[in-house]
Design a protein that fits this description.
Elements (H helix, E strand, L loop, with lengths): L12 E3 L1 H6 L4 H4 L5 E2 L7 E5 L3 H13 L3 E6 L16 E5 L12 H9 L5 H13 L22 E5 L7 H4 L4 H13 L3 E5 L2 H4 L8 H5 L5 E3 L5 H5 L4 E4 L4 H7 L4 E3 L12 E2 L7 H5 L6 H11 L2 E3 L6 E2 L1 H17 L1
Parallel strand pairs: 1-2, 1-3, 3-4, 6-7, 6-9, 7-8, 9-10, 10-11
Antiparallel strand pairs: 4-5, 5-12, 12-13
Length: 335
């Protein structure tokens, strides 16, 4: 599928110093020799990364200069290593309409998901989903596959996903500290075994989470910060509750029920149980289509992102990306 919402190949593009310094490899995605400064003369468009202050600055520059602009982010199948370890991403997303985490308006991904029901792509999505589940892949794939340390139970095990303060997807999806508190209260009330997946940095005291401290004071709630893969955790839980984490998407691939307290891009299509607050409920009024999980997977992992081999920078498809990440993981395990 041609991504006709991308900047035309070779367009002279500008970005803030943060992007040109930290992601010079982005030039390969746009067929240009280099990204220019957003202030450079002759720039025909602006690209910016994420939703933080530098992105807001870039957008203001684009508005001031009356230039088109595009949002950039990692794809949903990124790498074996972490971004903070400077591991290059095997995929990026480029969006001319908005960020997928921003529930206040429709992104290009939202439109692709909505229109996917009219296309013959469910088979493609099924193949992608089967490979991702079989190979135990997620966005990041650096952690080992082993069973988490959890007490045995005959009760339904519900995993609540904490997120770190500063995660822009929380407020942009309509979530808030109250969303996490409500999620915890609801979980305790149903009598399930409540397991809170907390970030290791939160447990170590380096970062603050929305949920971990309150959960630690709640009788019967289990905190889990095991350094194991997403697939390993999903193998031992019955249900996932989240505000906006990709954990929910990974659970959907495996047929695990998902409850959302924000409006991540995969919610609102009839595939999740949505417990949205007033801020995020407007997304439900737009997401009227009823795609299958396989339709959503095809849009999210094939139609929307661009994949590149991070050695040669040749364009590859999602199946090539899966094969590459599997090979990298095996090499890591051998080494």
């Amino acid at each position: 599928m041609t991504k006709d919402w991308y900047p035309p190949a070779g367009m002279r593009l500008g970005a803030t110093h943060y992007v040109t310094r930290s992601a010079p490899w982005l030039k390969h995605y746009f067929g240009i020799r280099e990204l220019k400064s957003a202030f450079a003369p002759g720039v025909k468009g602006i690209v910016f990364w994420g939703g933080r202050s530098t992105a807001r600055l870039a957008r203001r520059i684009a508005w001031f200069r009356r230039l088109p602009y595009w949002y950039l982010e990692d794809g949903y199948l990124r790498s074996v290593g972490l971004g903070k370890e400077n591991t290059l991403p095997i995929s990026v997303i480029v969006d001319d309409l908005g960020m997928p985490v921003d529930a206040s308006k429709a992104s290009r991904l939202e439109r692709l998901i909505a229109s996917s029901v009219d296309g013959d792509i469910a088979g493609l999505g099924a193949n992608i989903r089967e490979m991702l589940v079989c190979e135990k892949l997620s966005k990041y794939n650096n952690l080992p596959h082993r069973e988490p340390k959890l007490d045995r139970t005959t009760r339904r095990r519900v995993l609540l996903v904490d997120q770190v303060l500063g995660d822009v997807s929380v407020p942009m999806s309509g979530g808030s500290p109250e969303s996490f508190a409500r999620m915890l209260g609801d979980a305790v009330a149903i009598g399930a075994q409540c397991v809170v997946r907390t970030h290791p940095d939160v447990m170590a005291g380096f970062r603050k989470g929305y949920l971990t401290e309150k959960a630690a004071r709640t009788p019967g709630v289990i905190l889990m910060d095991d350094a194991v893969s997403v697939a390993s955790i999903l193998d031992v839980v019955d249900e996932i509750w989240t505000v906006s984490s990709q954990f929910g998407l990974d659970a959907m691939l495996r047929g695990i029920p998902v409850r959302c307290y924000g409006a991540p891009f995969y919610s609102g299509w009839g595939l999740t149980e949505d417990r949205l607050g007033e801020m995020s409920s407007e997304a439900l009024h737009r997401r009227l289509a009823r795609p299958s999980v396989d339709h959503l997977v095809a849009a999210t992992f094939s139609l929307y992102p661009s994949y590149r081999d991070t050695v040669t920078w040749q364009e590859i498809d999602v199946f090539g990306a899966i094969e590459t990440l599997v090979a990298e993981r095996r090499k890591l395990e051998i080494d």
